[in-house]
Amino acid sequence: MTYFVYILLNNIIPLSIMIALGVILYKAFKLDIRTLSKLNFYLFSPVLVFKMLYESSLSLQLMMQTLLFFSLHFAAMFLLVEFVMRIRGYQNSMITAMRNSVIFYNSANYALPLNQLVFVGDAFTLSIQIIIMMMQSLLPNTYGVYSVNAHNKDTRKTLRTILSLPVIYMIPLAFLMRWLHIPIPDPIYTPINYISSAFVCTALLTLGVQLGSMKWKLMFSDVMLSNVLRLMVGPAVGFAIVWLLGIHGTMAQALVLASAVPTSLSSALLAVEYDNEPEFASQVVFSSTIFSIFTVTLVIYLIQFIA
Asked: TM spans, by residue (predicted)?
């Protein structure tokens, strides 16, 4: 019950308030969603990733184990959603939208505080979550951008789009500066803190603006299918992978919990930025966040059996 109340009070209600403010602001001022989207992709998201990686302390062994789990989980979910989409007969942009809603999940502003609640401020499990967050920041800005632009015949244009995204440079830069112990002067670090703190707010307002601008044609069956794959099949696959790899204890628990969180804001931001089923993507992010209060609580209960 403690986890249920925590997720409700610290994730669902605050996120819902921010999304509601975005809806209200759109109704009042007709905010430009493209501008908000670009702020997220080109400023807030890359600065947040840089700050978290620069401040983290990650061992090579931990990183390799976590990346192995992440790669297997990503591949398994990718194949599962492809199989389901073939059965459902999805076509064109809906294929990319459904796939992104399942393979991209909220590993930052949802999973990080959840990790620290469940594991009571454990630095080891936090490091695991940061590695997964790094990959979940990199993939939407590389593969995700490629997938939503795959219909373009101009491969060079798509590649230029990917290479223009700052987050793919922030990750190696953060690791290099941390490895070389390069300090960041206070006049630069202060705005980094300000900008990174604004990511969650801006991303949620963007989602609210998108929801406010929709005609609200509810895509119930598609949205629920995505929620089941993300919130129920995702952690089930996570359980299977840690069992197959022989991972036990706290690391196994942290990995499974990391795979149980709702759809990432990145999937909605991609959909908005590149006009790829934005209504479906926004509905999935919102609904999966709400339903996660029940599914994540169940996963927290179940991971005690792999301790």
From this structure: 6-26, 38-54, 60-81, 102-120, 126-146, 158-180, 192-211, 223-245, 251-272, 284-306
